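Supplementary Data S3. Sequence and structure tokens for construct A.
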Amino acid sequence: MISRLLYRPLTALAAMLIASMLLPISLFAQSPAATPTGDDLYADVVPSLVQQIRAETDRQLPIVTVTGNLVPGSEAPARIEGSLSLAYINFTDAEQTELFLRLYPNFTDYGGGSMSVSNVTIDGQPVEPVIGSDTSLATLALPTPLQPGDRATVTLDFLTTIPVDPVTSYGMFGYFTDSSSYNLAQWMPLLAGWDPANGWLLERPATVGDPVFSNVAMFDITLTMPSNITMVTTGTRVDEDVLGPLTTHRWVAGPARDFVMSGGTDLQVVEQQVGETTVRSWYFSGYEEVGALVLQYGVDSFDVYSDAFGPYPYTEMDLIQTRLGAEAAGVEFPGLMYIGASHYDPSSSYLEFTVVHEVAHQWWYGVVGNNQYLHAFTDEAMANASSIIYKEQVSGPDAANTWVVNYLKRPFLTMLFGNLGDMVVDQPSADFLTNGPYGRTVYAKGALGVLAIRDAIGQDAFFQGLRDYYAMHRFGIAQPEDLRAALENASGQDLSELWAHWFERTEGLLDFTPEDLLEING
């Protein structure tokens, strides 16, 4: 889910001073609103697709309803306290006797945050969560086993504490004192991910690559927070009630894999309507020129990908300048992308590459999901290859080749002819020792493989295959063989050997020589 373009170190983050946020901390969680019905739950789906998507998903997906409060820190850490209702449907193909919730802030990589749950019920019956050594996983025993298609309602209260200036989790979860801003990824309990090929993913989250894997759901989120906070989220806001220093917002989102937020007190915005979607670029004061550039990159890549792969199904897409760390240039979530503040330089080509890579993830991860623990290349390599396709369209083949050299070949060849040598692309992320070889293999070598397949089968078959893949696996979890099958069906070619060469073997020395690296490095 999360793209960090890991093989490029970051420059120092510019210091920014933003007004502090104050709020009394005598707020209490409220009961969740009733499960929403009607079109309001699909308010973020573009009008031309809403009837079709409703027919595909209505009453087929879990519905997550949250009511709560964001309480900024004063003497205590900032927190979110709330109540959650999960209208669960057994969307798997097997009987379920347990449900599994992820409490991601308890994972050590989330920088010292925490999440607790209490008052858990299933269909009105109290249930005691079982939490083992992996405190990011809570197991709930179902009072009655659920067959495929059966339903149950889970209710609970939760308390999430937000770490201050975390140095882990890529900066995607925390409060940052230098910008007085919040990044709030996985701030509420989430249903654990189900992979049709492997079942529930219950192992400890990965420390290399993406920590989060989840299926689509519908979200109805109501939060009260200080009125001076501008909060940018997945989905769309459908209601707002200002009561002096506090404002209550209601957002809906879905079908979406997560509901993520980021915000602060000094955000500006520039936006552009593209078809049925509003693309927005949010930025800190003083970054107006770069904020406009980010919007242009977002709009241009949105156009390219919509034509090449298929329609983006949501009414909003947001890019936000924010505080990131741990070598993260950008992090993508459904409908919302964090872009590292230290990259907001109008002369930086890497800013453009980062933005269009994250936008590509709205197609490869956001709409077409995959198991990022086991097959990360089917979203990361696809996003990098899509970035090259974008550059060809907007700047021409020479500029695109420069990107291939700088962002694909150089990282991979440096590893190939260094101490590590070649590595297999399609392997579990946990099998990589660090994010360095993971990025050079999955992002760079993997993208070279995708482009090699395009060269082998031709542009027409390649794009037809991707459009078919996108349409067939919308809102699902695709397997690598699904992508290969779509490209084979469109081209009429057997790609098994070429696929294995790039993604399943270590045969890089058949494609490159040390002289290639010397030429790249001048």
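Construct B, processed identically:
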Amino acid sequence: MRGIFKRRSGIVSPVDSDWLQTHTGSDRLISLVGSPEKHIVLATVGETLTSDTLSLDQNYKDNSLFIASGRLDNRDFLCKALNIPLSLGRKMDDTALMQAAYRMFGDDTPEQLLGDWIFAAYNPHRNELFLAQNHHGYGALYYYVDEEQYIFSSSLKHLLAHPKIPKEIDLKQVVARDIIVFGLEPDATFFKSVKLLNPAHTMRIGRTSHHKERYWSPETITPDPNITADDAAEEMRQRFTEAVQARLRSDGPVASMLSGGLDSGSVVTMAAALLKQEGERLSTFSHIPAYNLSDLDIGSLTGNERPNIEATAGIHTNITTHFLDSSHLTPLQGIRMLNDILCEPVHAAHNAYWLIDIFQQAKHMGHRVLLSGEMGNATISFTGIPYQLGFRETYLRYGLRGIVRKKLLQPLYRHTKGRWKQYTHPHAWQEYSYINPMLEGEVHPSRLIRQSGRPIDFNYHFASHTDAMLQTLMPGYNPRLRFGYELGQHFGLEFRDPTGDKRIVEFMLRVPNRLFINQKGGTKQMLKRMMQGRLPDRVLYQKSSGLQSADIVKRIQPDLPEIEEIIRNFSTDLYEGELFNRQRMLSDLQLLKIFKLNTGQTNHLLRSVGIMEFLNSYKWHTHCD
């Protein structure tokens, strides 16, 4: 979805029209609405959302314009609210239904819609453009605004292809990404001139001004102390079933990511059961190591989750598993491909190769939808926070010693340790970042970390269990939502995550902390109640977490000569000195060559290398080609 709105004078030029009709990603059909004489043209693209959900209409009697893209999950509710007979409404595509909703509700429409969607509406009477994005689903909207025009696109790569948009890199965002800080400026991108319209936000654009507004704030939800464990588990099961069911609507085969963990396992188990009722199958794609892990130090984590994956898939006879070791892609190739697709370096650069492989294989096998469970840690499989239990609940679970340990000693230790490290080790970010320490005098990494509210050593002490959930969810901002959207669009897939469904998020925030922790101190009890008898016990009660890219230390070895060249030759005019501590990077690279760098340190190194590669691409190119 894309558009150009001339704010003051002039017409949409041939250059603008060419940009509007440029194809990106998979082959798509471009449809235009509006006219140069009206100073506005909007375009929608034949994206890969279900085939009956994408249309474009210019049939308003008042010549209003409306374009949209997405999936609606509350179609029956909208039909009733709009007085549309269900027999007719169920035949309407999602965009036509969104358009009808906008006619009825106007700028309040976003609050009435459920699903993953974005839309733009132009009101000629007010000469105003209105944009909106869904509550907490996959989607993206980027924009550039100057005195003459407002240009927007759901693809950063496509937006940057417009010749009038400056491509200057924002140094602060580069540093923030390397020191693992998110959300300081929620609408910022790596490009100074490009901003974001984030999830749960709308924007109104007029001739002389534009105004953003957030319409959904789950931070205001408080736990219900009266809810019982049985009632909570039943409502959670109902909402989760609805969320999965809504994401199975597709004009082609559905697939899902599947690790050996609880979140993707729950999604797959529920999806397979629902598809079985329709006589349909579910394909799963799982990443597994390509190298032996026996001589690698991965601590108590599980590096190869294949046994758990097979146990989960064995629950239903309509699941077809695909195990991918991604040996044909090197980590460096994956980093370069992901940088090119997103036009932005990612935090978990070490996972790029297998993410690319899963999307490639799912597309190659003809799937239209790829499910995930990446928001599950903050919703369905939330652990609970033991130290936030009340004294009575703590005593019942852990006894008197538990009260002393969890309510007194542990909080005191965390607080004291955090304060001590904050004042005695203000530059502790250098343990996981290769940014040059000299930048403390210009960009102030330590200050950025303090402003973000993130402990410098990641040792969080949350004021409440809901704060912990929100820390992971990042409502109104979460960058994973746009990354997943753009990755899916590039490969001609729609990425969908039922664990991040608005209804589930709101409900889980209402669940009191005590219900996540059983009488023996076991955590993740909400999911275990919901999935008891549905997931195999070895998965449901596993004690070891899985480790992504567990063999990265071995897998990266063929890339090391080229990585060394990247580090040695890197230069940028973003900073007058060295942007990265290249000496330290080269020293750690030598340790990596002899397997003396552990998995976590290797991941940090690759994050910085990924940023270097991203900056190198913009040193020679004005936009992503």
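Residues 47-60 have pLDDT under 50 and may be disordered. Residues 391-424 form the longest helix (34 residues).
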